[in-house]
Every structure is written in C-alpha cells, then in structure tokens.
Protein 1
Amino acid sequence: MSIARFDFSVKRFVLAPLAGWSDPPFRAVAKYFGADLTISEMISADALVRNPLKTKKLYAKSPLETPFAVQLVGSSVVVVGEAARMLSDEEGIDVIDLNAGCPAPKIARGGGGSALLKNPATLGEMIGAIKKNGGQKLTSAKIRLGFEKNDGVALAKVCEEAGADFITVHARTKTGGFAAPPNYEAIGEIKSRLKIPVIANGDIDGYEKAQSVFQTTNADGAMIGRAALAAPWIFAQLKTNLPIADRAIKREVVLAHFDHTIQLYGARGAIIFRKRLHKYCKGFEQAAQFRSAINRESDPSVTRSLIDEFFSAQRN
Ligand SMILES: Cc1cc2nc3c(=O)[nH]c(=O)nc-3n(C[C@H](O)[C@H](O)[C@H](O)COP(=O)(O)O)c2cc1C
C-alpha cells in the first residue's frame, strides 16, 4: 500500500475540511493551485461503520489529491476505532484526522467534535484508537484552543501523547465560534511545547496574514477554510505572493470547476454549483443580476453560458 508522506521541512498549506463545500471538484481546484494537503468533509464514524458502501461516496477523492486525509467525527472510542480500521485497508488515504472542534449542536451534544475538548481522556483514547487501528496511515487531530477557555497546551499534549503525527489548531475556543478574535499567541505557546508539527488555522486569508501568523506562532503550516471558498486559487498566492486576480484565469477556473461538478453530479450539479457562483461573483460588476439569473436556471448548458458571459465581461 502506498502512503504519501509529506514532511514539514517547508511550511505546508492545507485546505480545511468544510462540510457541505469541500467536495472532490472543489478540492481538485485547491490542489491544482498548490494545496499541500486536502481533507474530506467530516465523516461520521457511526455512518461509516453502519453503512460503509453509502458512506464511502462521501470521501471519494479526485485523482489529483495526494496526499489526502479523511476526517472522522464520532463520540464513541470503539466506533471511531472501528472506522479507522476500515479506512486502514483503503488505497489513496494517507492521513486519518479526528474532528475535535466542530461546534454544531447535533455533533457536540452527542459527545463528538468540540465536546471532546471537555473530555481530554476520551480525546486521547480516540486518537490512540485511530493510531492503533489505522495501519500505516498518519494520525492527526483538528482541535480548538478549548471549550470555553484556553486549554490549548494541555489538549495538544494529550494529542501528542496519544500518538498524533501532527495537529491543526483553530485559534479559537468552541465558545469563540467563527467570529471571536483569533488567539495566535496561544498557538505559538502550543508549538513551543510540542515535538510534533502544528498547523495554524483561523482567518488566514492571504500571503501577508499567513506570514504574520507564522511569525507569531512558528507553526509548521497554515490551514485555510473560508478564504478558499471564494478563491481556491489562494494557495498559489500563499506560496508565491503573486496576485491571482486575472479575470481570464478566474473564468477558466470557474468553468473547469463547473464542468467537474456536472461530471460528478450530473445535471443537478447546476443547482449544487449556485452557492459556489454566489461566492465567485462577489465584488464583480453586475453580480446581483448574475446571481438572480443563475438562481432561476437549472439547465447545465445555459448555466455554463451565463458563467462564460459573466466572467468574460469583467474588467480586471
Ligand atoms: C461551512 C463550514 C464547514 C466546516 N466544516 C468543517 C468540518 O467538516 N470539519 C472541521 O474540522 N471543520 C469544519 N469547519 C471549520 C473549518 O475547517 C475551519 O477550522 C474554520 O472555518 C476556521 O478557518 P478559516 O477562518 O480559515 O475559515 C467548517 C467551517 C465552515 C465555515
């Protein structure tokens, strides 16, 4: 079985798992522009164990995606361990990541996601179970700084001691949601106390921000979520500091992304793609008219022409 190892001798840029958004066509665009690691949306360990054939479809990957991580979410150590054992046999998965940060009530109320931040013993056992059952796959965890207060160092140490090969830290507590000011200093503290690589996450939206986060945290990489939704080409900019603003490139990328989406989902891809176009057209001239036109359209070939026309008409 081939496992892609990626070292941290240079800073690594990772596309965040984004439930409802990070499907194979989107991840392929990020990968094409230089994302070093892409991750599936969170996959319920329970669903995988109960219904493997149906659940496998949720972490299908595009051929470009190596290395590739599958993220598990769950509340039972036994079930998460069993899901990791199932993934251990699968080609094309290099990392098994544990979601220990999702604040959504339907996940956290059951004891998974961010609830693990309140239960460090379970967090450690879950990572240990992934490590033990995951075969040659790398084990990682994505945590927040804590549930209500910053317990980042203690939680990160639990991850390291349980066998995580690297961790990602979102620079907020669960209570901080997605809008509290990110505490990058806390990630710096974690980094200084751990031996394993640490990836910083939270509000990183361009080259300068990434460099300033690296300065503050000394992190080994950066994970990008929301900023990549409107601009999956951000990875090229993060690595080179060159603006990728050319409208001809955007037109081409959006059309290629659309074509992959239709290939994967068939005609309903035109409807699935609407929310992407809402992100892609932000800040462009006539964006409101474009949005209402594509919202009314469900024929893929007409939608494609509308995209082509809209982006061709833009000035840089
Ligand atoms: C729509 C959406 C879906 C998300 N889905 C997941 C997920 O499946 N797993 C996870 O660990 N985090 C998930 N997150 C959190 C992001 O991975 C990331 O940690 C967070 O958005 C902060 O990074 P950013 O400021 O770069 O967006 C999600 C965030 C958003 C906005």
Protein 2
Amino acid sequence: MSKIDLSMDALDPAKLKEIDALVESLPDPSGSLIQILHKAQSLFGYLPPELQLYVARKVGVPAARVNGVVSFYSFFIENPEGKYNIAICLGTACFVKGAAEVLEKFRTELNLPKEKSRTDDGLFSIAEVRCIGACALAPVLRIGDKIYGHVKPADVPGIIQHYRDLEEEG
Ligand code: FES
C-alpha cells in the first residue's frame, strides 16, 4: 500500500456498517482478519487501500498487517477486475518460459501502463498471479474458467479479439 491516509468517502456507508457489525460480533477480531476481509471483499468486490485501512482501524491493528494478509492470499483482490480478468502466471516455470513477455504484450495491446490494471471501458484487467498448478503448460494464463497454455506474445492479440468478439455478439 503506497498511501495510508486515504479518504473513506468513496466507501458505501451501508456496507461499512455490515463490516462493523461483523467485527463487533467477533470475540477476537484481530484473530479473525481473514474472515473480516472475506466479508469486506464480498461486499465491495475487491479490497482497495482505503478499505484495508478502514478494516485496520476498526479491528485495531496496523494497516501493514492487514495489507500483509491481503497480499499473501491470492483470493484477495486489491484492484477492481474487468469483466475479463487475465490472470497471468509469473511462477518460476512460467517465468522462465517467457511469461513476462506475454504480460508485456497484454499491457501494450490493452494500453495498460504498469500502474493500471483495468482498461477504462472496464472490459479487461490484468492480474499477476503465482503458480496456478499447470506448469506443464507454461507459460499459462487464465481468463474466467478458461486456461490458456504455451502462450506466446504473438497469441495475445487473438486472445483479446476473441473476448471483444464475444462482447459484440452480446
Ligand atoms: S509456474 Fe505457472 S502454472 Fe506453475
């Protein structure tokens, strides 16, 4: 988390109240951070820095501890996902087979600089993930339930176009 003094204005108060209620119902909130963060993610869809800070203050633990938990578990999402989230494995097997070049090609094709993870139209997002257990197919990426294996940078435009076509078909 780069900034910690963030505005809470963008967070829906009704949803925050649900988090409050959960925290207050727990005998040991600081020992139940994962449960609380799951709830927060199910309410907001992801865990932006200001929401992590809110949880930290509510529970009474340092923001760094909350962020440590969020970063550690891959099921927690820190950035909003697009309709099609492209999860690119950067685990060792994928990395040595060129995953970084595939990632770079997606960034170029989708016009997404490093600090951005979602396209402005909300259609695509990119997530860098750890091993997804398909190393034999390295480099691997996942979009929804579909796994793509042995992906080369040259395949990237076609993959993106496939999802753009799906959108046009409605
Ligand atoms: S390292 Fe990428 S699937 Fe295992």
Protein 3
Amino acid sequence: MSDLQLQKFELGPIGTNAFLVWEENGTEAILVDAPPQAKETIAPILATRGLRLSALWLTHGHWDHMAGAAELTSGEMTVLGHKDDLELFENPQCMSSFAMPGMEFQPISVTQWVSNKDKLELFGRDVEVLHVPGHCPGNVAFHVPSEGWCFVGDAIFAGSIGRTDLPGGDFATLEKSIKDNLYTLPPATSLHPGHGPDTTVEREMATNPFVPA
Ligand SMILES: [Zn+2]
C-alpha cells in the first residue's frame, strides 16, 4: 500500500479548512469539506498528479464548508454527510443571514448518509465516522486510525471549540460530543479542524479552556 498524502487549504472569506487526501501513485482523491474556491484551488493539483476527485466528505452543512461543493460535484461523485444537517444541505439559504452578504447558495445532494460509528474506507484504510453534534446537529468527524488523523469539522479547534450560538447549536451537547467521541481517541491523534491550525487530542485534553478533560 502506498503512503497517503494530505494537503490542507484555508479558503473562503472566513478561512475555512479543506483537506485533500490521495494515495501516492493512485488515481483518485477525496476532499474533506468544500469551502468557496475549492474547485479552482484543487484543480491544478488533481491535473498535475493525474487524480480524479471521487468523493466529498462534508463534516457539516454550514455554508462556509460547502459553498464550493455544487460546482465540484459531478454525477458519479460520492457526497457524504449526516442527516441531522439535511435542512442545511438542501436549503442552505436558511443560513444566509449568518453568511457574507451577497453570497449565493446552492443546495447539495448528499448521496450517502453517515451515522455514528459507521465504517468507511479510504484507499484501503479503515475510517470510523464519529457523530459530534453541538456546533450544529449533524457535525461528524472522520477518524483514520492508521494515519492518526481525525477530521473534526467545527467541533473543536486548537485552544477553542465551535460556536454554539447558531441555530441547532448547544454547548452541553458539544461538550458531551468532545468528551465521548474525541477525547477517547488515541492521545497522539492529529485533529484536523475546520478552522485554524491542527492540534492533537492530547494537547486539547491538557489545555482546552472550554472543554477540560
Ligand atoms: Zn460550522
């Protein structure tokens, strides 16, 4: 099995992270989240490496994580999401009052709904889906144990947590999600959040001021 490659991009008006993952010498790539400008940003990388984008894994349905999805997705592409964000995927303009003025939103067709503890496959590696609601109802994390990676969306950030004042947000729910589903991961696991720098389970358990371990 060839090594996995991971490239991070910070995109859009509020600096939202997207992560492109592919297997060295492979022909396919997957993208975790699709902020605005995702397509033009990853297109040269796909072209240079001869990769086809085969799947989009959405951590949640907030506009800044999926405003670039509609132009990226083609008929045969798998789009993963959690059903508790159905309203956000299908009716994204419901969040327009929280977005940048003048932005346009297109609905996203999720082709595969995922739930807590679902198993996925990433170029031959196991992936576990972790439901971590609280920032919004349908936030999921994608844990890749072989690589020590966990893509967490807006559940937790380096030294912070996702805001809980948006519709569907709830601090107690988020705190429980983090403690039950993220702080139980191996301590050295890299957390790849939807905003800002990467961190680790160990570091957040020791220093996160909002959700102490
Ligand atoms: Zn969000």
